């Protein structure tokens, strides 16, 4: 049974103070977490003077990895405790409580990114959330979603068998073809998927 948004919020509120340390030893579907972040930086360079929004910013590690000295970083997260931790670590970030569907910002951005968050979105709401994300981007703005994903349903089953007891049945992971179709339907173009880890993919798309 999938987690509710309330349960997810409670989980991440509890996890906030140990989040960064725990992910240094990530296992299960998150195995290779840091390596995926590093590779995502290589495939998604940020230009000087850009404005970036991180959805599900957590403690800010991914946004901090991507940004340049003059990048204006905005971040939202459904967890108040994560926002508090992020603000302590990165006092120059503009932070609010929010989600994909309720970003709680009246701004547009050169870049919108999200790392290991999209699988927390209810599958029935993902197309709507991508549409909102498209609206948050400036023309020629770019999106990066880095997450646990699988190439096919068979790949999901193979992952489930390989991960074994560390598989989390309360989460639903995107199938690449299905996500690609949703991205195109809401208006994204120039879509490309890059595998960044055993169970991780990054997708880069553009608003034109």
Automatic annotation (TrEMBL):
InterPro entries: Methyltransf_25, SAM-dependent_MTases_sf
Molecular function, one GO term: methyltransferase activity
GO biological process terms, semicolon-separated: methylation
Keywords: Methyltransferase, S-adenosyl-L-methionine, Transferase
Domain Methyltransferase span(s) in chain numbering: 53-141
UniProt key word Transferase: yes
Organism: Piscibacillus halophilus
Cross-referenced Pfam families: Methyltransf_25
Protein name: Methyltransferase domain-containing protein
